Amino acid sequence: MHYLDRPHGRIAYDLSGPENSGRLVVCVPGMFDHRASFRFVAERLADAGHRVAVMDLRGHGDSDAAFEAYTNRAAATDAIALAEELDGRDVVMVGNSFGGAAVTIAALERPDLVAGITLLGPFLRTRPTSPAMTLLQRLMVARPWAPWTLAALYDSLHKGRVPEGHREQKARVLAMLRPADRLRAVRATIFGPNEQVLTAPGLRAEALVMVGEQDPDWPDPRAEAEWVASVIDGTVEMVPECGHYPQSQRPGVVAAGVLRLIAEVDADA
Prior knowledge:
Elements: E1 2-6, E2 9-16, E3 24-28, H1 39-47, E4 51-55, H2 72-85, E5 91-96, H3 98-109, E6 114-120, H4 131-140, H5 146-156, H6 166-177, H7 180-191, E7 206-212, H8 221-232, E8 235-239, H9 246-249, H10 251-268
Parallel strand pairs: 3-4, 3-5, 5-6, 6-7, 7-8
Antiparallel strand pairs: 1-2, 2-4
């Protein structure tokens, strides 16, 4: 594990294939997730000759929980800073869920740095919710039961294939949610003023959207994937036997998709 120093705190990250000479790939997980969800994808990409940095969000995993902002834009600035720290050029970024918006914002902000993005079950827009549903969501993340309700929600989003080591990953998530300061950070991430990416003028990065066919976050996962692709001018790949976490449920499929994207970036270089 390594740390990236940022204003007001540190971002924890793992680096696979540090001596490799291929593309730098920066991976950003979603809210109330741990960077270890990318462990299998990172291993495959490193075996293919690339450097892979997988970060924790602010207040998540082993990152500090003393930041002033926990938004998707803040995560985008951390991903950019990590790419710069590792001397990346024409970087490929991979983002899951909340992380999908973060890497899209990063690509829009730094077209000179980010050459490709792969979005896994991304949230580029929010669904309207009723006052009753908002109240229910806030009750779900209230102490003392929030660590267990969020861990149960995390488990339920893995429709389809159960990842290898899923029990250990759930234990990481539960342990992460127990400290009061980290739970506050997770709540700030969930309910913060996160940006929607409804248009992407000036986006130059090659883009791939990968969504699980059984992702329970949307009534029609394919329709959402196609809408996201229309925003970022990307291609769509639906992932079978998969819910909201393609990186852990179908890592071989995701790694193959990222490698194809890297090949496209190389061809355009």
